[in-house]
Design a protein that fits this description.
homodimer, eleven-stranded mixed beta sheet, 481 residues, 35% helix, alpha+beta, five-stranded mixed beta sheet, 14 helices
């Protein structure tokens, strides 16, 4: 989108020296995003938005396959709604944007621009839900939300972002808990199989949970700078909101009961995770399943007889095999410039086709993840390409998994915890007594937070890593975005 | 979504007596929409949103096929941006919602919640566009917008609505004009072939054009109460915005020039048009191409041997043929109740399958549009069903076309115009001198407005229908939503 620069690749900061600057360079230069005119806002450029569209498509399939339907609720929430649930207002009020004037008048009640939609959706559910026959209520929405953050970074934390938020109501506590974990599992499966990002899953501590939830569960990913990123959350809301919004139903036994609720969401932050998990010094590295362009074809010496024809034929074969392919036949930039551009943009594989390739009945291929060069026979190139793309998809996941394993350490006392966080650049697994004081102490000394209490609980020590009292939970600690 | 009511169909107002109430009854009872807690806002329920998703899918295909890419620009626009283009601010300022507080602080500059995104997109384009090589810039976005309207009605006019807005910049005035008309044609083709709504297309008068445009073109549809509805617009913005936002590029001749711009959009209003063009006393009538459920299967005497099996088999066959099918196997409501519900929801065709049908090797079918009953052989039912759906799609378009033709009258003097508008309940075609005064006079006397100056200009009289001076344009006049 920005004016073209022949040397842009040389301007990417060193990934090992200045990771934050590397991130910013990559997302801007790959034309995924730009800064909006209002502080803290972002413009998602076509290349970033195409990734979001693929995320939406894949997630929508999964959200619908689990019985949910999409709907749309209003952007503006009466301020009084937000105030109904005590923890919720405390958690969100500091970040809220208010509409106070509209249609030429000062509003009698200020309106909150939704930071999340529990309250407004509950106000509708209290109307819609009458009987157990109306349950489970399984609704999802894709929309924008606003949280006025002090310190922002494109995709990771912005004043406005895009997300999906599921909101469900059930007859029993058990069903709500089942839904909460089911949707977390949908996120994990999607993240691992589509984004190729291994996820640690577990429950949040009370300190880290959603404002108004009984329990929050999350998927956590490890970035290449060793910081963790919360990539999605699923909340068991219990009856916190159904009681204050009076969401009652006639049960199978004929009693009036409050519904049991969940909510769950993932955001455009996932795009940031993709960049920071897979990227390298040349820029983005996209897993094929989420790449707007899976294969780029570059004609070499396109003026020579046959080159354009073969390129077009290969493009059509790949397209027919449902591979997202782009034939870059521009004659205004050099081949070297194209190499740089498509590597920066993380296209999983490129095929060069020139007179000599055609003579040999092959295309010269380059894998973006390994930068390995090889040839593919033109005969049957669609199937061979798909096999390579599948291989790249797997390889990226395994590489990220190896990184995570190599950056996860166990600590049995506070010194080891501090040392682990400083040196390992990643997760430290350590036991915790369950007291907020210890959690606060860890944060104060190390700036790390409890990312989650993993589902697979093990006992790696008997005592809390902080206070030495009997341990209750295994916790993944890390510095985090 | 609301609590189920066995007699809901009897509560729909008479379409011929109280069309506005009929409309409200249908959209609420079909669970397409509900009123939001803030005055003038709507909640789009799953059934309404599924229609919107189909609209998005069909339009996205067309928008991308014409070379546009989707992106996302921020919701909040600095107030100063809106003020840059004089006509634009005049047109939109009265309807704008302002954010004045955020993150616990009063903002130095109030933010406008986007009523449309020309200004914020221009601020980005002025950064992104440097050279003719960056043109044409062809970007579209799907988002919510806010216009604080005094008088609202779900889908037709609401404080917040969903839409797509395309924003393009070109090298020459001719290219911008070509784009403007190309996208109007995309809208027309989509509306006629997918929504089955015949459209009148043409240019808006200066009075009716977009605030800041050189020329606005629209597609106009006629509702069953004889009122017209502007269903989509495409604007040639000339250099109005590129000059005030300094969008310049180096031309092929090496000169610095201002770009030529267009914008175009359709909204959730299209859903309201669908209801009002095709609906009848029993509720919605959806064209198959836009129906969330194209065929509903109702088992009759489902407990009898074989019924469920055959229903499942038919469902699977229809699904395999890419027909959106739903098997309604609820045993909690009667068959009659199901008939009412699916008719209300406008499902294009229903198939009843009971023991006798199976014995005869058929399903008993009902077409929603004509309420005609017939049988379809179970053998090859997918192909036969698809053929029927295609027939329904065509029939709906033709019926709407006949309605429009029967409600279009020519007037050569003011009395005929007034009489035509009163009696015809539809369009009156009449000549106009081009003066604003005459346009105002027609509105004052009849409350009708100039819907468009159709592309197919004819001379049905030599003089203006209002003032008697020489006529310049043929105009479609109508009362409108």
């Amino acid at each position: 989108m920005a004016g073209k620069n022949q040397e842009f690749v040389t301007h990417i900061a060193d990934i090992n020296v200045d990771f934050p600057q590397w991130y910013t360079d990559v997302i801007l230069k790959a034309e995924m995003v730009d800064y909006g005119p209002v502080k803290g806002t972002m413009v998602i450029g076509p290349y970033g938005y195409e990734i979001w569209e693929l995320i939406q498509e894949e997630l929508n399939d999964r959200i619908k396959a689990t019985g949910h339907r999409n709907a749309y609720f209003p952007l503006f929430i009466p301020e009084s709604f937000l105030k109904k649930e005590a923890e919720h207002v405390e958690g969100f009020a500091p970040e809220v944007a208010y509409v106070t004037k509209a249609g030429g008048e000062v509003l009698a009640e200020p309106l909150v621009v939704r930071p999340t939609s529990e309250t407004i959706i509950c106000s509708m559910y209290s109307k819609w839900i009458q009987s157990y026959r109306d349950l489970p209520m399984l609704i999802n929405q894709w929309c924008n939300v606003v949280r006025w953050e002090k310190s922002t970074r494109p995709f990771l934390r912005t004043s406005e972002f895009l997300w999906q938020e599921g909101h469900t109501v059930h007859e029993t506590a058990e069903q709500a808990q089942e839904e909460t974990l089911k949707m977390l599992e949908v996120y994990r499966e999607f993240s691992e199989n589509v984004l190729a990002i291994p996820m640690s899953t577990g429950r949040k501590t009370d300190k880290e949970k959603f404002a108004g939830a009984v329990a929050t569960y999350s998927i956590e990913a490890l970035m290449q700078d060793g910081k963790a990123l919360q990539a999605g959350t699923s909340h068991n809301l219990g009856q916190h909101f159904t009681k204050v919004f009076d969401i009652t139903f006639q049960s199978r036994e004929g009693r009036q009961e409050y519904g049991w609720q969940t909510s769950w969401g993932v955001t455009t932050r996932l795009i940031g995770a993709l960049v920071m998990v897979h990227g390298d010094q040349r820029g983005l590295v996209l897993p094929p399943k989420i790449a707007p362009i899976e294969i780029v074809i570059l004609p070499i010496a396109a003026h020579k007889p046959g080159v354009t024809d073969v390129c077009l034929k290969v493009r059509d074969e790949l397209k027919a095999a449902d591979i997202r392919v782009y034939l870059d036949d521009r004659d205004t930039v050099s081949a070297g410039w194209k190499f740089n551009e498509w590597e920066l943009k993380g296209v999983p594989m490129r095929l060069e086709i020139g007179p000599r390739d055609i003579e040999n009945g092959v295309a010269t291929a380059l894998r973006r993840d390994t930068l390995e060069k090889f040839t593919l026979p033109l005969e049957g190139i669609a199937a061979a390409s798909q096999a390579k793309l599948d291989e790249i998809q797997r390889a990226l996941y395994e590489k990220a998994m190896r990184y995570r394993d190599a950056h996860t350490f166990d600590a049995t006392n506070f010194d080891e915890l501090v040392k682990g966080l400083d040196e390992s650049r990643g997760y430290v697994r350590a036991m915790w007594c369950g007291d907020r004081a210890c959690e606060d102490a860890v944060k104060e000394r190390t700036s790390a937070t409890a990312r989650c209490m993993p589902f697979k609980q093990e006992t790696i020590a008997d005592t809390c890593v902080c206070c030495g009292k009997p341990a209750k939970h295994l916790v993944f600690w890390a510095k985090a975005y």
